[in-house]
Write a structure and sequence with these properties.
Elements lengths: L6 E4 L2 E4 L10 H5 L2 E9 L2 E2 L2 H14 L8 H11 L6 E11 L12 E10 L9 E7 L14 H12 L4 E6 L2 E5 L3 E6 L2 E4 L10 H12 L4 E3 L4 H6 L2 E6 L3 E8 L2 E2 L7 H18 L3
Parallel strand pairs: 7-8, 7-14, 11-12
Antiparallel strand pairs: 1-2, 1-6, 3-4, 3-5, 5-6, 8-9, 10-11, 10-13, 13-14, 14-15
Bound molecules: N-(5'-phosphopyridoxyl)-D-alanine.
């Protein structure tokens, strides 16, 4: 059974979740002035830790904030948190902390807030797949920063849920950007296509891993702009993220995608991904 009061990390201390507290003046609370990471943990090992750290550094640079800890310091704190933990994911959040008052100006002096906790993974929608709708990407123009300001994503996800489907696939100026909390792959004439990195989307760690696996195993794949019309013609559509791995989209905008069932390319990539995970779990 999941422990509902696990140990968490807060500003250098390890304490039970129900004792972890931050100030109401924390800029994360007042302004969503912070960034985060979600890191899968298999067999007590973080998957792609250095990639997650590099993205965290890039997000911090994007909000003009130096990393409050070194990579080694952060890693050893997280390692202590995941001791004995089997398959879970780590949530890590860094905010610009409490500067003593509510002021829009970025303060010169502040003590950042660093918080991390583990949560159970799954259960995952695998071949049962999910349904999605396309929605106008109403978010800001710095979507490559993994900002804790997720209201745009949340409203889009809710719009999808209200339409009776699981996820929103976002479209900006006629091109697919990403999912409300995932990256998008489409199989077009036998080639996997995912939108190129840039300010319109989060550079997903799972996305990169899939491109890497595709390259290694001769699966035709490319990063290219993905027009909405092309998405509607796709033989397969997948959504990817650290917490949901690779999920086939079986219905888009009320119409079946391809055969309406999890396709052979998804099956192949999912096998490669599961094999990669199994190796990571055993420390290889
Ligand atoms: N989100 N795009 C968005 C907007 C996301 O929120 C996520 C993941 C991704 C996929 O990134 P990655 O493969 O690195 O998980 C893409 C996490 C899981 C979350 O907010 O919980």
């Amino acid at each position: 059974m999941a422990n509902d009061n696990p140990m968490v990390y807060l500003n250098g201390r390890f304490l039970p979740l129900d004792q972890a507290q931050v100030s109401v003046l924390d800029r994360g609370f007042l302004f969503a002035d912070g960034v985060y990471e979600v890191i899968p943990v298999y067999g007590g090992r973080m998957l792609r830790w250095s990639e997650h750290w590099r993205r965290l550094e890039a997000s911090l640079a994007g909000i003009h904030m130096p990393p409050p800890l070194t990579m080694i310091e952060m890693e050893s704190a997280l390692q202590r948190l995941i001791q004995g933990v089997y398959d879970q994911y780590l949530y890590l959040q860094i905010t610009r902390g409490n500067a003593g008052k509510r002021d829009h100006n970025i303060p010169k002096d502040y003590i950042p807030t660093v918080f991390a906790m583990c949560s159970p993974i799954g259960p995952l929608p695998r071949e049962t797949g999910i349904k999605a709708v396309t929605l106008d990407d109403i978010r800001w123009k710095l979507c490559h920063i993994k900002s804790i300001a997720l209201l745009g994503n949340i409203l889009l996800r809710q719009q999808a849920l209200d339409q009776g489907v699981n996820e929103a696939i976002l479209v900006r100026d006629g091109f697919v950007t990403e999912g409300a909390a995932s990256n998008v792959f489409a199989l077009l004439d036998g080639v996997l296509v995912t939108p190129p990195k840039g300010p319109d989307l989060l550079p997903g760690i799972t996305r990169d891993l899939i491109l890497e696996l595709a390259h290694k195993h001769d699966v035709p794949a490319k990063e290219a702009p993905l027009p909405l019309e092309a998405l509607h013609q796709a033989q397969e559509i997948w959504l990817t993220s650290s917490t949901r791995e690779i999920v086939p989209v079986l219905e888009l905008d009320g119409r079946p995608v391809g055969s309406g069932r999890a396709g052979p390319s998804w099956r192949n990539m999912d096998e490669l991904y599961q094999a990669f995970k199994a190796r990571a779990r055993s420390g290889q």
